[in-house]
């Protein structure tokens, strides 16, 4: 029987380094008379690991089902969401596609097929299934996507830069707020940015620092109330104001790149590890998707000294030991697909423990698919060890702001905390007013 990967981190000692993983034999699709072509739209276009995993799953499925052909179209999200919206409006679109919390309106709009049946959910971590178990059209609860990747938000750093600046990283891997601000100031004074972040093609990278300062200050219950608009905690709360004021002090010292508004995610990666123009990169643990590719494909240089920290502890914080656990990479099915049963069978084959092992091996990232750790093979043993060290004291909390906030609040948070505020375009008072207006309207 396959052993389940621990709910928080991968035990480095359980990994086998080097070699490959072979995906197990998928289940056959329901009998089909004519040949069918399944259109699969997938992100990201430049990830060799993602290509390797899903093309292997498709190849195995096609071999077991000669009447089925899987046709991939590779996108970046920035281009895929407009394309898929246009296709849906035309009554078309892919049968199967990448999905995440960037477009939660697809659920309420009835665009996704319910996956409650036809999937071996016993092979998937229960909390991961719960992430996509939500009310859909007319309030009917369904399971709207298959979660594949489990992500934590990490504070990556350039070991060489901090060493040259005379910065000693604490053994806890977590600076206190005052010391962290001093480190960021040293980075800026040395001609570097504090953070490698760009929001030119993503609605969330600018929120990382704010999100963690709020989590560490408020703790889970109070942050949940603030983001859900419950009214017990508002944006005028003195603790929230303290967080925003602290973050504004980092922004005013030019902690973010001057080009943050136009810098794209892939460019932010290169800004961090190739050009080495920033001390820190706040990003999900899916950092490895891009960074651990060949250098010629945009991966980090072989001699880059990567480190990992926890976000800073705040004074009198109720959640300094908490860390967001999120679902990153998922797959959804077009509700209007003519081949829903076939697509569900493909997804069901992806719940095989060997697929989870392949994902972890290729992506250097946790899978939500229950996985036999003995089958995980990777050359990145050092990274898994570093990841475990950074997460061993942290307590996971599942709190996705994109899913929790009402539409108006989510739009305001994206405009303010992802863009205008970290770019230094608005004050704490202006940010507070915009966010509190959105919260109080309750839309």
Structure characterization notes:
With 443 residues, this protein is an alpha/beta fold. 39% of the residues lie in helices and 14% in strands. Helix 7 (208-218) crosses helix 8 (220-228). The longest helix has 17 residues, at 48-64.
Give a quick set of tags describing it.
disordered N terminus, 443 residues, alpha/beta, 17 helices, 6-stranded mixed β-sheet, 5-stranded mixed β-sheet
In terms of topology, how is this protein built?
Elements (H helix, E strand, L loop, with lengths): L35 E7 L5 H17 L3 E7 L2 H13 L6 E4 L5 H4 L17 H6 L1 E3 L5 E3 L2 E2 L2 E9 H6 L12 H13 L3 E3 L12 H11 L1 H9 L9 H15 L12 H9 L4 E7 L2 H5 L14 E4 L12 E6 L2 E4 L6 H10 L3 H11 L17 H11 L3 E3 L3 H4 L2 H14 L7 H14 L2
Parallel strand pairs: 1-2, 1-3, 8-9, 11-13
Antiparallel strand pairs: 3-12, 4-5, 6-12, 7-9, 7-10, 7-11
How many angstroms does the end-to-end distance come to?
47 Å
Summarize model confidence as the mean pLDDT: 91
Low-confidence stretches: 1-23
Strand content: 5-15%
Topology, number of strands: 13
Quaternary state reads single chain
Number of helices: 17
| Dominant shape | globular
Helix content: 25-40%
Largest sheet: 6 strands, mixed
Q: Structural class, judged by helices and strands? A: alpha/beta
Short description:
By secondary structure, the chain is of the alpha/beta class. Helices cover 39% and strands 14% of the residues.
């Amino acid at each position: 029987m396959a052993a389940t990967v621990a709910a928080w981190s991968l035990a480095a000692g359980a990994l086998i380094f080097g070699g490959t993983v072979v995906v197990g034999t998928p289940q056959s699709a329901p009998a089909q008379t004519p040949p069918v072509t399944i259109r699969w739209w997938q992100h990201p276009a430049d990830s060799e690991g993602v290509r390797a995993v899903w093309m292997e799953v498709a190849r195995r499925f096609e071999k077991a089902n000669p009447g089925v052909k899987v046709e991939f179209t590779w996108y970046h999200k920035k281009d895929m969401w407009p394309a898929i919206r246009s296709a849906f409006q035309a009554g078309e679109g892919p049968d199967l596609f990448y999905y995440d919390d960037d477009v939660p309106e697809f659920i309420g709009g009835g665009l996704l097929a319910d996956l409650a049946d036809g999937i071996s959910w016993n092979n998937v971590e229960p909390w991961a299934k719960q992430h996509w178990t939500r009310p859909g059209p007319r309030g009917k609860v369904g399971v709207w996507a298959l979660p594949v990747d489990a992500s934590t938000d990490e504070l990556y750093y350039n070991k060489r830069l901090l060493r040259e600046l005379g910065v000693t990283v604490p053994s806890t891997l977590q600076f206190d707020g005052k010391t962290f601000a001093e480190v960021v100031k040293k980075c800026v004074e040395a001609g570097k940015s504090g953070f490698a972040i760009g929001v030119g093609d993503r609605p969330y990278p600018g929120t990382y620092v704010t999100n963690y300062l709020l989590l560490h200050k408020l703790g889970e219950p109070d942050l949940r109330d603030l983001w859900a608009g419950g009214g017990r905690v508002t944006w005028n709360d003195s603790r929230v104001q303290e967080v925003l004021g602290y973050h504004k002090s980092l922004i005013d010292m030019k902690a973010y790149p001057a080009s943050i508004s136009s810098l794209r995610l892939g460019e932010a990666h290169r800004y961090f590890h190739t050009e080495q123009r920033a001390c820190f990169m706040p990003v999900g643990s899916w950092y490895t998707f891009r960074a651990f590719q060949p250098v010629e494909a945009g991966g980090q240089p072989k001699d880059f000294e990567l480190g990992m920290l926890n976000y800073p502890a705040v004074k009198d914080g109720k959640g300094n030991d908490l860390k967001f656990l999120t679902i990153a990479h998922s797959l959804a099915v077009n509700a209007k697909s003519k081949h829903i049963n076939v697509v569900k069978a493909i997804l069901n084959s992806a719940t095989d423990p060997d697929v989870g092992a392949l994902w972890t091996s290729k992506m250097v990232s946790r899978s939500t698919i229950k996985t036999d750790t003995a089958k995980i093979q990777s050359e990145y043993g050092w990274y898994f060890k570093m990841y475990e060290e950074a997460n061993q004291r942290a307590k996971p909390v599942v709190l996705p702001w994109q899913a929790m906030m009402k539409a108006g609040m989510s739009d305001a948070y994206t405009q303010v905390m992802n863009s205008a505020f970290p770019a230094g375009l608005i004050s704490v008072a202006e940010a507070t007013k915009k966010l509190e207006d959105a919260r109080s309207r309750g839309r």
